[in-house]
């Protein structure tokens, strides 16, 4: 009788140990599965799929601090291209300048008002002049806030008989603002100032 009880007690301990081992294994597997699931969900949330020309392109989301230099340079380039790309059409001029003024403060508005008052835009329309700009480089100083920038560019002024090339250097500051459809980068140009704007060369049109 005593031997049977001892065998039963041993078997019970074995069953209990095996059961605890199974439960521990299930808990570990469940925890690992939850961890991998959360990791996979997090990775999927950082992926963005963009549809372009009927093709799905995969992109990755990242913190803004990783893209500040790129976005800041593109903001400055976009502003200058809109502000200085002009054609002899009043609607085109107003459309481009209006878009540009969403990206800067009243320092840009004052420049626009001065040019308009001096008949600059009227001269472009009456003289059938087109103006384009090529951005050579943009430097951003991220060591201080607001971020200082300097833009180096070349203006091409296309007239009926000639094309004039002008060197353009501007500077200003960039301040963080809320993103919107009119300002997708979330920057605002402040204290915008033209340092240099001089003729480089002129060529006759054939």
Automatic annotation (TrEMBL):
InterPro entries: Conjug_transposon_TraK. PROSITE patterns: PROKAR_LIPOPROTEIN (PS51257). The keyword Transmembrane applies. The chain crosses the membrane at residues 15-35. It comes from the Bacteria. Keywords: Membrane, Transmembrane, Transmembrane helix. This is Conjugative transposon protein TraK. It comes from Flavobacterium chungangense.
């Amino acid at each position: 009788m005593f031997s049977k009880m001892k065998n039963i007690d041993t078997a019970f301990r074995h069953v209990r140990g095996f059961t605890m081992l199974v439960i521990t294994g299930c808990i570990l597997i469940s925890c690992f599965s939850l961890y991998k699931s959360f990791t996979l969900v997090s990775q999927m949330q950082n992926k963005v799929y963009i549809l372009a020309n009927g093709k799905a392109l995969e992109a990755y989301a990242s913190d803004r601090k990783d893209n500040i230099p790129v976005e800041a340079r593109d903001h400055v380039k976009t502003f200058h291209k809109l502000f200085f790309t002009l054609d002899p059409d009043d609607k085109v001029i107003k459309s481009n300048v209006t878009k540009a003024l969403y990206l800067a403060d009243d320092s840009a508005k004052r420049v626009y008002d001065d040019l308009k008052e001096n008949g600059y835009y009227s001269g472009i329309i009456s003289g059938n002049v087109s103006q384009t700009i090529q951005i050579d480089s943009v430097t951003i100083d991220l060591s201080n806030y607001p971020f200082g920038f300097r833009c180096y560019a070349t203006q091409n002024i296309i007239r009926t008989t000639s094309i004039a090339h002008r060197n353009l250097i501007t500077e200003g500051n960039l301040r963080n603002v809320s993103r919107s459809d009119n300002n997708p980068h979330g920057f605002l140009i402040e204290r915008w100032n033209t340092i240099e704007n001089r003729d480089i060369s002129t060529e006759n049109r054939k």
